[in-house]
Amino acid sequence: MANTITNPQIESYVESHTSQGPKYLHEIAERTHIDLGERARMLTGHVEGRFLKFLVSMLKPEKILEIGCFTGYSALCMAEGLSKNGRITTCDISEEHAQIAKSNFQASQYADQINLILGPALITLETLEGPYDFIFVDADKENYLRYYETVLPLLSKNGVIAFDNVLWSGQVLQVEDQTEETKAIRELNDYLIKDDRIECVMLPVRDGITLIRSKGSTDRL
Ligand SMILES: C[S@@+](CC[C@H](N)C(=O)[O-])C[C@H]1O[C@@H](n2cnc3c(N)ncnc32)[C@H](O)[C@@H]1O
């Protein structure tokens, strides 16, 4: 089991006590493992996928933005929780990943609701108009802080941003780990907790997810 921070027995207990997703998602995950081998560790997977669907069902976003589409697994989880007029914009830098994702979207009932943009996310973001009600960031970790500063102004008043992999298999605690990815994740985590504009909560789900919203956004509605 890749990218988890809890012990494997707890993780498998959590998996078996989280509602099943649809069969096609299981098939997409399986095909991703077969076709892309080790890269399949990038899949959000069952528990986080159900969590994303749950969040979307609660937040009822009209517009979702995803940075890091891969084979489309997480976008399809979010699409499940979306209303009929909801839309997802997702992006990826890899033509190979984008092609697989596109065919997975086409085979789903959500093809008309998901728009995939190919290219480096920072360039793609320049072309997008907010506001977005839910933003899921799950791409290259070195750019996490840049993504944060770029998407915060695109967030709707009551919107939520979710950053994936914020615990990075626990490496954030290993001071000897000075790799660019680990440093970038630590930098984002330390930045968010000092940022007066927002409030955040870090959840030890799978590899760690931080949820962010603008301060005061939904207080005393
Ligand atoms: C962890 S995977 C996303 C997994 C996906 N959210 C899911 O659960 O199936 C990260 C993806 O980000 C893409 N990526 C990496 N750097 C990128 C960049 N600069 N711009 C856009 N996408 C990027 C990779 O090609 C990869 O498909």
Task: Tell me what you see in this structure.
With 221 residues, the protein is α/β, with parallel strands linked by helices. It has a single domain (8-214), classed as Rossmann fold (3-Layer(aba) Sandwich). It is built from 8 helices and 7 strands. A 7-stranded mixed sheet has the order 3-2-1-4-5-7-6, sandwiched between helices. It is globular and about 45 Å long. S-adenosylmethionine binds at residues 42-44, 68, 70-71, 73-74, 91-94, 97, 120-121, 138-140.
Q: Short description, anyone?
A:
This protein is an alpha/beta fold. Helices cover 40% and strands 20% of the residues.
Q: Characteristics of this structure?
A:
Rossmann fold, 7-stranded mixed beta sheet, 20% strand, binds S-adenosylmethionine
